[in-house]
Design brief:
Elements (H helix, E strand, L loop, with lengths): L6 E4 L7 E6 L4 E6 L9 H18 L3 H16 L9 H16 L6 E2 L2 H4 L4 H14 L4 E7 L3 E6 L5 H14 L5 E5 L8 H8 L8
Parallel strand pairs: 3-4, 6-7
Antiparallel strand pairs: 1-2, 2-3, 5-6
Helix pairs in contact: 1-2, 2-3, 6-7
Length: 209
């Protein structure tokens, strides 16, 4: 079963907001982050965030027309003053998510506070916590088995950073080696590191000739 390719784009940091776009297996994931006890988000920062989301959608979303329409909708909402009272990152993230999904109908497209910024800017602490969470999550590999009839089944809940999840991914694919058919269950997969997508895809597709 083919696995969709993915792309990741890092946007420049805003003054008090971090904005990132990851196009995962099924959709885009946006992160709008605020430092602990950060000052209220300014009108200029809201404008810059909306514009940057629009640019990233236009350039990277898997369905260009949908991405462009979603970005334009945010711009229209901004111009109409819909975000004027949203100076809190959580509230702004929730509203942007609602507006994006109203156009895209894509439940994987969302705005949320970025975990790294929740640590108050302490990168080392944030990275350590992320590694612990990834281990507890088994790097997204929820279930790997060979079913009756030599059918492989992979329940994959996310695409972990390749540096963290490579060994687990390789072990899972070794277990599935030689199956006659493979079911890749992505129903609960929210995307993630595109390099993990590429790594897994390398087991499924031969070299180009």
């Amino acid at each position: 079963m083919p696995v969709s390719t993915a792309a990741a784009v890092r946007a420049r940091s805003l003054r008090r907001l971090g904005l990132a776009l990851t196009l995962g297996l099924l959709a885009g994931l946006f992160a709008l982050s605020a430092r602990a006890q950060a000052p209220p988000i300014s009108a200029e920062e809201r404008r810059e965030a909306v514009e940057q989301i629009g640019r990233l959608l236009d350039a990277q979303y898997v369905f260009p027309d949908v991405g462009r329409a979603a970005g334009q909708h945010l711009a229209q909402q901004l111009a109409a003053g819909a975000y004027d009272d949203l100076a809190d990152a959580e509230a702004l993230a929730a509203r942007l998510t609602e507006d994006l999904q109203s156009i895209s109908r894509d439940r994987h497209m969302r705005v949320r506070p970025a975990p790294m910024m929740r640590a108050g800017g302490d990168r080392d602490a944030a990275m350590a916590r992320m590694r612990r969470e990834q281990r507890a999550f088994n790097y997204g590999f929820a279930r790997v088995e060979r079913l009756e009839g030599n059918v492989g089944y992979l329940d994959l809940r996310g695409m972990a950073p390749i540096e963290e999840g490579r060994e687990t991914a390789a072990a899972a694919m070794r277990l599935l080696e030689g199956v006659d058919a493979l079911i890749v269950d992505l129903r609960q997969n929210g995307g993630g590191d595109p390099r993990m997508v590429q790594f897994l895809s390398s087991y499924l597709f031969g070299e180009r000739t």
